[in-house]
Structure formats: C-alpha cells, structure tokens
Amino acid sequence: MTFLPGLAQTAPPTTVVWAPAMTAYNFGHSHPMAPERMELTAKLAGSLGLLALDHVTVAAPEVATDEELQSVHTPEFVAAVRRVSENPGAPDEARGLGTEDDPAFAGMHEASARLAGGSLLAAAAVLDGSALRAVNFGGGMHHASRDRASGFCIYNDAALAIQRLLDGGVRRVAYVDVDAHHGDGTQNIFWDDPRVLTISLHESGLTLFPGTGFANEIGGPNAQGSAVNVALPAGTADAGWLRAFHAVVPQLIGAFEPEVIVSQHGCDSHRLDPLTHLNISVDGQREAATAIGNLAARYCGNRWISTGGGGYNVVSVVPRSWSHLIAIAAGRPVPLRTPVPEDWRSYVRDKYGARFGVEPPELMGDDVDLWWRSWEVGFDPNDAVDRSVMATRKEVFPLHGLDPWFD
C-alpha cells in the first residue's frame, strides 16, 4: 500500500468525527452509556480551540450501509438489528438485542450504524491521504461480535475501520485497546487473521465484565501471537498501568511493524468511574494516548485512528480525557495544568447541574504524580501487576521473536 506523503509530525492533518446526530445512540435516561458524554466532549474540545485548528477537519459521519456493516458482521445480525430497531417491543435477546446492557430503542440500527460510519470515515480519510490521524470519540464499540451485540455495543466500529484498511491495501494493522474492559469483540473478529495484532490492557476478567482477556488468549491457529492480553488486577493505579503498557505494547508494535494503528480509548479505567475497579487518572489516560501517538509516529508514518469507548463519569472524566485524545492526535497537546474553560463549566452547570449533580472540574488534569518504574529495572514476582505482565510476555513474546525476560 502506498500512502500519500504527510505533513510535519508536529501538525498532522487530522479528521475529527462529530455531529450532534451521533447522540441518537441512546439506551435511555437511566443507562450508564449517556449520550451527553459525546456532546460535552465536543463542546470542551471546541472551547479549547482544538476543532478550529487549521489542520483539523470536523466531519459528520454517514449511516453505514448494510454492505459496509457486513464486512465484519453477519447479514443475519444486521437484519436482526434492523427488526428490533423498527419494533423495540420484540427484542432478540439471543443476539444481545433488548437486554439489560443493550436495551432496544426505536432507531437503534441507524444510531449504531452512524457511529460505525464515523470509524469508516476515519479509515477512508487515512487511506486517501486526506488525514494522517483521525478521531471518532463516539466510537470504540469493542464488545460487539460478528453476530451478537454485547456490553452497550451494537456494531463494532473499530473492527469495521480495521477491515476497511485491510480491504484498502494495508498489510498490517495494530489495534491497541486501553478500555477498562477487555476488547473481546474486536479480538474475536480478527482471532485468526495474522494481519491484525490486537492488544488489550484491561481489568482482569476475574473481577469485571466480560470475564475474558487472559494471557493465554493468543489468537487462532493461523495467527498465533496476534492476540495479546494484559489482565490487570483490580485497584491498579497509574504507576502499575503505565509500567504494564510500556513493558508490552512498544515491544510488540516494533516487532509487528504495522502500517496503521487503530486504538480504543475507553476512559472507564478512571478512579471515579462507577462501573470499574481501576485507579487511573486523566493524566494517566493522557499519557497512554501520547504513547500510542508516538508509536504511530515512529512505526506508521503517523497514521493513527483513535476511538472512544467506555467511560461513565460523564462530566468530570470523559470530556477531559477525550479532549486530550483529540489534542494529542492533532499534535497540539493540552497541558495538564490548563484551566478548564469557564464557558464550558458554566454550560455544564446550567444544562446538566440538576441531572449529574457534580461541580465541573477546574483543571484539565487530576494533578497526580505519574512516575512509574520501567520494566528494565527488573521483574518483581511479589507484585501482582508484574506477574500479569510476565504471564503475557511469556505467552506472546517468543512468537514475535522477542525474549520475555530481556526485551
């Protein structure tokens, strides 16, 4: 695959996927997946000036066609989503439609397919060279499998973007998932495809949905080592999480040599998230996005598609984390001590104060110490994070020509 040349690494042409119509992905007032998190992210990124940068294009997604969706989903599943979308009173729980996690609602197909269309738009922009980087913060629906909805996810937009890249001639794609939950759907869709490396760092399935994502899940018979999982113990904080990331991800990306990185940035790993048990800060999430962007610059000529994902602290966490993601993708990172714009804080108070009942954050970061120990200082068998990391390294590093002890 030959890509068009890009601009300087400090200001890569960047597409940000956004339109108010994306908030139609709405499971109801009491559901944790509040669509307001998308609106508040777009508004905060706008208040920070990120959407008005000369090299940033804001693009509205189209509803993905059935043919596009069927590149990773079965025709029967797409037809089932359409039926439930038209008649929410007749759920299809066998396919995950109309369950407690994924309640049926009128227009479900169109709303889900629009988010999917956003990641397809991002892939198309990278393929045609109009962007080196693209962000679909409304995407990241990583639990959806080929034939079933799961975990608040109907269509798997990240998988669709990866497949579009492959169909467009990209030879190798690395998928990096930093959501608190295991990226099971994306992993399973590409389970036996050696062209796709899926890496997921998540809270252990022993304590969190979906109960999968252990070190011994390494890919199908034709793609051994293509699935990589770091299952972190509940309570893991910034230092342990970043140590794990840097002990696994850069080494495997370097060995795999992808042409494009696709990443999922669920920010439900935050210490204030109501559904998970990790202890990460916005600062740590920003550091992870920075590291992935640096890997894209080093190995992929800056070609990077990033998506959102989980994140259920709608006011204090999600908008800041994903605004940082947009800023990093655009090559204009926002310092952590930057005050949150007062116009955004006033908007939150006026429109959502009664619903969410929290005071908007004052700074773009959580003001924490991000110091972490490099893996090179040595493996500590008494540390639960280190044991998880070593389990992963032993399973997959040799399959990539890497030494689990020294690389």
Automatic annotation (TrEMBL):
Gene3D superfamilies from the UniProt entry: Histone deacetylase domain
Segments crossing the lipid bilayer: none
Molecular functions per Gene Ontology: histone deacetylase activity
Pathway membership, UniProt: Ketone degradation; acetoin degradation
GO biological process: acetoin catabolic process; epigenetic regulation of gene expression
Superkingdom as given in the UniProt entry: Bacteria
Cross-referenced InterPro entries: AcuC (IPR003085), HDACs (IPR000286), His_deacetylse_dom (IPR023801), His_deacetylse_dom_sf (IPR037138), Ureohydrolase_dom_sf (IPR023696)
Pfam families recorded: Hist_deacetyl (PF00850)
Alphabetic keyword roster: Acetoin catabolism
Stretches assigned to the Histone deacetylase domain: 31-327
Record family assignment: Belongs to the histone deacetylase family.
Name recorded for this polypeptide: Acetoin utilization protein AcuC
Biological source species: Arthrobacter oryzae
